[in-house]
Amino acid sequence: MPELLRTIVGPVVTEKSSAAYAARKEYAFRVHPEASKPQIKAAIEALFKVTVTDVRTLVVRAKRRTYGRYQGVRPSWKKAIVTLKEGDAIQVFEG
């Protein structure tokens, strides 16, 4: 089980996650692969002082990449999509 500060690896800021934030106030985070939904909820609430209403998780599959004649694999990772209570916001995504 990852500790509280290592549960959340970082925010995922892409066009798709920015559109989800603008439309539905959903925040996307890269999380520890062994973190469960209750652990993710507790970590978000403790780190950002907000109330989480919903947590959805998915595992982003590994991708095979070719660099000239060299081949490699990008590792798989876990993503969490978090919905907050109405009126709450996380400043990382605001600015």
Identify the notable features of this structure and list them briefly.
alpha+beta; 95 residues; four-stranded antiparallel β-sheet; two-stranded antiparallel sheet; 4 helices; globular; Alpha-Beta Plaits
Overall description:
The protein has 95 residues and is of the alpha+beta class. It has helices spanning 4-7, 15-24, 37-48, 91-94; strands spanning 8-11, 26-31, 52-60, 63-67, 70-74, 77-84. The chain has one domain (4-85): RRM (RNA recognition motif) domain (Alpha-Beta Plaits, 2-Layer Sandwich), CATH 3.30.70.330. A four-stranded antiparallel beta sheet has the order 1-2-6-3.
Shape: globular
Strand order of the largest sheet: 1-2-6-3
Count the DSSP helices: 4
CATH class: Alpha Beta
* CATH topology type: Alpha-Beta Plaits
- Rg, rounded, reads 15 Å
Helices and strands, in N-to-C order?
Answer: HEHEHEEEEH
Helix-residue proportion: 25-40%
Structural class: alpha+beta
Question: What's the architecture in CATH terms?
Answer: 2-Layer Sandwich
Strand content: 35-45%
- Please identify which CATH superfamily we are dealing with: RRM (RNA recognition motif) domain
User: What is the overall pLDDT average?
Assistant: 91
Question: How far apart, in Å, are the first and last alpha carbons?
Answer: 32 Å
Q: Give the strand tally.
A: 6
What is this entry, summarized?
This protein has 95 residues and is an alpha+beta fold.
